[in-house]
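Researcher: We plan to redesign the surface later, but first we want a full-length starting point. Tokens attached.
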């Protein structure tokens, strides 16, 4: 087995088609198919399920994809690891951020990294927390800043801060109230993210524990879509944010604190199996310092630093 077998296999799984992978890596399709046939013969097991719509990995293929991705990443990082041992930190570091956190920290991280680590190339990926976690688990991201509800042992983590959840409405529910009870929250028409979203998981568990059936009128996976729906007046939503200065406050009322408190923890997660490179360690340290100073400057409501 050679590295090219692993590279070709990963490209095919990413593309979902041998023909698309062949066009991407500029290898003739018959030659690429032959390479995969050789790999399956060497391992003695089928790796891809083939159909008219393309290919998808078998269970064995999924296991190989995870391991191959990790191996190829280590090989890619090897030159920068060796050069960084001489004292000048360099390399490529891929960082994921959940969309809510990216509005706060993405731009400051890019600028701080450019100044403090000029020989480090930063690759930023923004998505929902669940998607970002899956990329860290698959070793396609070195680390990620995400909101968490429960600690998952497959990740190494550096907790940063806790953030309380707030109700977001188009118009004020009261002229005087600054909080809303969980029982009152359950009576409102709600616009929430899908079931895989960490905020949704916390809410669903809390509703279940309280014996409340929430009135969920619609779901949306992107926070901009959720807020756009709130602005139409069809419902309310819940966000881990004390204010919406970074997401756009126009057309929305002041946020109401939910009581009793519901909290999410913002953490930097990375693989528990593979340590970060020197460049990755430097970016993580920079991210911790940046997050703390940024939050101290913004004084965002509902934030408790625990880093």
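Model: Full-length starting sequence:
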């Amino acid at each position: 087995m050679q590295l090219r077998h692993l590279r070709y296999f990963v490209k095919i799984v990413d593309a979902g088609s041998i023909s698309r992978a062949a066009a991407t890596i500029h290898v003739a399709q018959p030659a690429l198919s032959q390479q995969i046939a050789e790999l399956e013969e060497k391992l003695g097991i089928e790796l891809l399920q083939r159909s008219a719509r393309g290919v998808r990995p078998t269970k064995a293929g999924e296991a190989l994809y995870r391991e191959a991705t990790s191996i190829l990443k280590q090989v890619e990082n090897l030159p920068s690891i060796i050069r960084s041992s001489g004292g000048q930190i360099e390399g490529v570091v891929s960082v994921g951020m959940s969309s809510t956190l990216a509005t706060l920290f993405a731009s400051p991280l890019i600028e701080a990294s450019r100044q403090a680590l000029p020989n480090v190339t930063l690759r930023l990926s923004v998505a929902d927390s669940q998607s970002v976690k899956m990329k860290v688990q698959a070793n396609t991201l070195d680390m990620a800043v995400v909101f968490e509800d429960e600690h998952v042992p497959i990740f190494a983590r550096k907790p940063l801060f806790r953030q309380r959840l707030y109700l977001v409405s188009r118009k004020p529910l009261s002229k005087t109230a600054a909080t809303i009870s969980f029982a009152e929250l359950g009576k409102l028409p709600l616009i929430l993210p899908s079931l895989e979203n960490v905020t949704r998981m916390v809410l669903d568990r809390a509703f279940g524990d309280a014996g409340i059936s929430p009135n969920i009128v619609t779901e949306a996976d992107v926070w901009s879509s959720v807020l756009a729906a709130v602005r139409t007046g069809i419902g309310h939503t819940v966000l881990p944010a004390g204010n919406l200065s970074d997401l756009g406050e126009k057309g929305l009322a002041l946020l109401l604190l939910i009581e009793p408190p519901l909290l999410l923890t913002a953490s930097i997660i990375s693989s528990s199996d593979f340590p970060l490179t020197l460049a990755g360690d430097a970016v993580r340290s920079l991210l911790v310092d940046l997050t703390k100073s940024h939050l101290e400057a913004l004084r965002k409501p509902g934030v408790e630093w625990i880093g």
